[in-house]
């Protein structure tokens, strides 16, 4: 069990977060099996070369995210996946680069298909004048970058474009998803961007429909952008 973990340097800031990340990635990757017990405090302190205080803070953090459950006289158990808080930005960051990231990105695309078209429709109906101005400026940047494509610059502005749509829905329940998108969009685009392309025409259709206040067109344009064949994700 101890071989799953690497030592954490005591010079790192927020030491308990570093410890939590190591344990979380063991859980998220499946190395620490759901329903299993993690090693006791003494073993983990020795493994990470940290104090009990730092370890306990790490475990509290993981418990708050639904990854662990601690009971006296029982120990600390890895929770089943349905308890994990997948909308926690920190948890999503910890998932980046794991071997099962292809599955994660496929699932994320599925969630986008279910939610994002309606967000675009709501933005077409509810975006404020200031939000439309900001969306217009963002799309102009997208057009400029698309002419001389640079993936890193494109990811930043594309991420902001989609996040702004969620912020423009007028529905507060869409706001957390906009934040989730900002957290994992970079990883998703790196894995899914087909031939490093920008899909500028598809984004233009979404932008034009929102600016025109046409909810139906905005919804359909978003669905077209999110079609599976436009993304190079492995099956």
List keywords for this structure.
single chain; Arc Repressor Mutant, subunit A; Four Helix Bundle (Hemerythrin (Met), subunit A); 2 domains; two-stranded antiparallel ribbon
What does the secondary structure layout of this molecule look like, with pairings?
Layout: H1 15-28, H2 41-48, H3 52-64, E1 68-71, E2 75-78, H4 89-95, H5 101-126, H6 129-147, H7 151-167, H8 175-192, H9 200-212, H10 215-225
Antiparallel strand pairs: 1-2
Helix pairs in contact: 1-3, 4-8, 5-9, 5-10, 6-7, 6-9, 7-8, 9-10
Give structural notes.
The structure is a single chain. A hairpin with a 3-residue loop joins β1 (68-71) and β2. It contains 10 helices and 2 strands. The mean pLDDT is 87. With 235 residues, it is mostly helical. It has helices spanning 15-28, 41-48, 52-64, 89-95, 101-126, 129-147, 151-167, 175-192, 200-212, 215-225, and strands at residues 68-71, 75-78.
